[in-house]
Design a protein that fits this description.
Strand content of chain B: under 5%
Order of helices and strands of chain B: HHHHHHHHHHHH
Number of helices of chain B: 12
CATH class of the largest domain in chain A: Mainly Beta
Distance between the termini of chain A: 66 Å
Oligomer: heterodimer
Number of strands of chain B: 0
Strand content of chain A: 25-35%
Distance between the termini of chain B: 6 Å
Shape of chain A: globular
Helix content of chain A: 25-40%
Chain lengths: ~625, ~160
């Protein structure tokens, strides 16, 4: 056959096939089309699945119509092996596709064996599904926003701990250098897979080892939806992976897409360019009646705090004495607290206790057992509600009116995320701040001109109150652009790029947190008249007092001296006072006063701002 | 019934030795050694493999009636649970109640109240001074076999 004829025939066949494919897909109603696209994880015309094993047609990643036709064709052939990672039959490997196509009348019921799936499903035996949120762990940047996973509640109800849980996680198989790790994480350099573990493994990891609370949102799904969800989960694991992007295609986004396959309409996606674990929690709670129950599982440390509240002052004193001297008490309550305290120490030491500590731990347990009787169950009373469904949104837009010395400014500030020390605490971990990508534009009323305002690339502050059983450090790092008064001819108010790092301790008493931090700042400016050189390092001390006694009203006072040892004058200090009042979680008013002195002249700034989270 | 109990005891002793030898790291039985990759499928297949493995041995020993009991069927699960949750489990055993000790009772097919009480009363025999999960499981099983009221609550006698 001549080449031109061959080409013509191929063209005809391909053309006919695509018309057939298009017509089949077009036959689907809009609901079916959405479901089919969800099963293939399509977004904006492309599937997010990244393994070739997932696609049965050549152009399945970009052509859902062809994938539909090819899937039906192969299912009709009913081949017994050769599909997915585990060489299964097409109907077994693509369990949810088969189910959906059969339910929608595209293929007859097939006779096929899918024993691994049936055993797997029987072992999980799910009668309910929950989204579980593990609260943030501010001292670990990788977990700063929390984490989500799904829990399958076993129908036999023999114990919550024995249920199974699945999460979508990046598989980091190589020991990458931190910047490479960050780069790969942001730009999809690691594959992400679903994993299935016993729920108690998750509880051990988050509740015990990392002292994070768990919120369990049980979903209103019927048995058919749960079974279909499991079929789809099985299909995904058998056939594909997804490139893991920390900011978007992450644990929570993928769980959201997984749930979409059984829902009447897709869960709402957040507006910013990032998807946070709390976004998934907000999305499921936004649908009326979709969450039928919320349960709280307090961290080990919070349980210990509750235990301490059951002791009187004398017993607390006794507890401390026994722990210090490694002696035993005859008091059940004190022994119970000692047991929990020993546990906290064991997790803190990652299981590596000294022989003396191990011996003492064992003796405490044996002593407690010898006294007999049941210890009462602890009901943890939350001091702060850190349920993320109540947290404010992430992006902030703020208007600020200020008087700097005698000059008046109007400022508009945009902040891409996330929260700061003066924001409403509900739904978040208190005393922590993470600001990123903020920029403001200032209008000078006297000069009648716009000028650059302040900016933040990223700023993280984590203030941990010290307790006798927990001595975690408080710290703060950030890279900001600030305006500073220099008062000379070339530069009255000039912009300075500032990197700061501080570390210290915090105490919490009478609803006031007091932190003392020590560290340094490193200012940079290339303008003349700012610093002698282009840069100026300065060791500094900062004292912070923050009150959150009233939920909506917060008061903060910061004071600190700095030593600009390359400049003249050398000493500088700042007194920064701020009050915020939250009307709704997403709307607040702030008043602020900053007094800065550099031995020569005092500069005061007074401002008020109205901010909206959206 | 006594014959069943003796056979069960022999069987437990034997498989404990075998399983622990094959599985010193994670406590997931033979399945762990076969399916090393800790993943969605391997977890399920591991459980399946362990279940097959146990049942096959049980039938060889002629204890098929007894082997249907949770104490045998869930041996690998008991071990994994104990190893993952050792600090919480032994703490609640000493305190005579709690969800960890209840879950373990469930894995052994026993009444949780009787199980918790027995473990507290016999704490020094059950909980080894070094934190060894495998020894803990063996000792708990021994209690189930030798303590009459507990054995009754577990439906063994």
């Amino acid at each position: 056959m001549e080449l031109s004829k061959k080409f013509f025939l191929t063209f005809l066949i391909l053309g006919a096939a695509s018309i057939q494919a298009a017509s089949l897909f077009q036959k689907l109603d809009s609901k079916q089309q959405r479901q089919w696209l969800n099963l293939l994880h399509y977004t904006e015309g492309v599937s997010e699945n990244d393994s070739d094993l997932f696609y049965l047609s050549e152009r399945g990643k970009i052509n859902p119509e062809e994938e539909l036709t090819k899937t039906i064709e192969l299912l009709k052939k009913n081949e017994v092996k050769g599909y997915g990672r585990f060489n299964l039959s097409v109907a077994c490997a693509f369990r949810s596709r088969y189910e959906w196509l059969h339910e929608n009348g595209f293929i007859e019921k097939l006779s096929f064996k899918c024993e691994p799936f049936e055993k797997w499903k029987k072992e999980i035996n799910a009668g309910d599904v929950s989204v579980v949120f593990s609260t943030a762990y501010p001292n670990n940047p990788a977990s700063m926003f929390g984490h989500t996973f799904l829990k399958f509640h076993n129908k036999n109800g023999k114990g919550d701990l024995l249920d199974y849980a699945t999460s979508f996680e990046a598989k980091i198989l190589t020991q990458d250098w931190a910047p490479i790790y960050a780069w790969k994480g942001i730009f999809g350099g690691y594959p992400g897979l679903y994993d299935l573990k016993k729920y108690y493994s998750k509880v051990a990891e988050y509740n015990h080892a990392e002292n994070r609370d768990l919120y369990i949102y049980t979903l209103n799904l019927n048995q058919r939806q749960i079974d279909f969800l499991l079929m789809h989960l099985w299909e995904l694991y058998n056939t594909t992976y997804f490139d893991y992007y920390f900011t978007w295609e992450n644990c929570s986004y993928q769980l959201s897409r997984l749930l979409d396959v059984v829902l009447e309409k897709n869960l709402e996606l957040p507006k910013p360019w990032y998807y946070l674990p709390s976004d998934l929690v907000k999305a499921i709670n936004k649908e009326e009646g979709f969450v039928k129950k919320v349960t709280y599982r307090a961290s080990n440390q919070k349980k210990f705090q509750t235990q301490l509240e059951t002791l009187n002052t004398k017993e607390v004193k006794e507890l401390k004495k026994h722990f210090k001297e490694k002696t035993l008490s005859e008091n059940r309550k004190v022994l119970d607290a000692l047991i929990k305290w020993n546990q906290l120490e064991e997790f803190k030491a990652k299981g590596q206790l000294s022989e003396t500590e191990k011996k003492y731990q064992y003796e405490t347990l044996a002593k407690r057992a010898s006294l007999g009787g049941k210890s009462p169950e602890l009901k943890v009373q939350k001091k702060w509600n850190n349920d993320p469904q109540y947290a404010h949104l992430q992006r902030r837009l703020e208007y600020k009116g200020s008087i700097v010395d005698t000059r008046k400014y109007h400022q508009i500030k945009f902040q891409s995320g996330y929260t700061d020390l003066m924001s409403y605490d509900e739904g978040l971990e208190p005393f922590s701040e993470f600001k990123f990508l903020a920029l403001s534009l200032a209008y000078d009323r006297e000069e009648d001109k716009f000028e650059e305002g302040e900016w933040t690339l990223a700023s993280v502050t984590s203030l941990h109150p010290i307790e006798f059983y927990s001595r975690e450090v408080s710290w703060s790092v950030g890279l900001n652009g600030i305006k500073r008064y220099f008062g000379n001819e070339t530069c009255e108010f000039c912009s300075v790029t500032r990197l700061h790092a501080l570390v210290g301790t915090s105490f919490y008493f009478d609803n006031v947190l007091v932190s003392s931090l020590i560290g340094a700042r490193f200012d940079y400016s290339s303008r003349d008249g700012v610093y002698k050189e282009n840069f100026s390092p300065a060791p500094e001390i900062k004292i912070i007092a923050l009150s959150n006694e009233e939920k909506r009203l917060k008061i903060k006072i910061e004071f600190g001296p700095q030593l600009y040892f390359l400049e003249n004058p050398r000493f500088n200090y700042e007194l920064d006072s701020e009050i915020s009042y939250t009307f709704t979680p997403n709307f607040d008013l702030r008043l602020r006063s900053i007094l800065e002195s550099n031995n020569k002249v005092d500069v005061s700034t007074l401002s008020f701002s109205l901010g909206v989270y959206y | 019934m006594k014959k069943c109990l003796v056979l069960l005891g022999l069987f437990l002793g034997l498989i404990s030795t075998n399983l622990y030898a094959a599985d010193s790291s994670s406590g997931c039985g033979l399945g762990w050694a076969v399916f090393k990759k800790n993943s969605l499928v391997s977890s399920s297949l591991r459980a399946t493999t362990n279940a097959f493995f146990l049942n096959t041995i049980a039938m060889t020993f002629g204890t098929s009636g007894c082997a249907k009991h949770s104490i045998v069927k869930n041996e690998a699960k008991q071990l994994h649970f104990s190893e993952t949750n050792y600090p919480q489990l032994v703490a609640q055993m000493s305190q005579g109640q709690g969800e960890y000790v209840n879950s373990m009772a469930g894995l052994m097919g026993c009444d949780s109240a009787v199980f918790s009480q027995t473990m507290q009363q016999n704490f020094s025999q059950v909980v080894p001074s070094a934190d060894s999960a495998k020894e803990l499981v063996q000792n708990m099983q021994l209690q189930v076999l030798t303590n009459e009221s507990l054995a009754r609550s577990c439906g063994i006698i």
